[in-house]
Amino acid sequence: MIFFWAFVVGGLISAIGQWMMDVWKLTPAHTMTTLVVAGAVLGGLGWYEPLIRFAGAGASVPVTSFGYALSSGALEELERHGPIGVITGMFEITSAGISAAIVFSFLAALVFRPKG
């Protein structure tokens, strides 16, 4: 049953993103930013963790989980180190994903001919 709910929740998040692009005529960048912020807000309110427990990869794979990771890391480090922990916590939790994006973007730029 977990595969079913992962498919439903992941599909719903993707459908919301597609709906935002089709109806509101948002660019993919605006849509992605909105979904990341939505994940951060849901994470800050404590609603995203139960969604991940319920849907598994259906909630942890979409871009909304990046916002959740940012907010949860910031809140964890805020408790440990105070206000400076907000900044360090966001990057501590998401550093692997950010580093991978930078490295793979660089490698793609070496292999393909970038425009601009």
Short description:
The chain is mainly alpha-helical and 116 residues long.
Portion in strands: under 5%
Label the structural class. Answer: mainly alpha
| Unreliable residue stretches | none
Order of helices and strands: HHHHHH
**Fraction of helical residues:** over 70%
Number of helices: 6
Q: Which outline best applies?
A: globular
Spatial separation of the terminal alpha carbons: 47 Å
- Summarize the main sheet: none
How would you characterize the overall build of this protein?
It is a single chain. The chain is mostly helical. The protein has helices at 2-23, 28-44, 48-55, 57-60, 64-81, 84-111. The protein starts with a helix and ends in a 5-residue tail after the last helix. The mean pLDDT is 92.
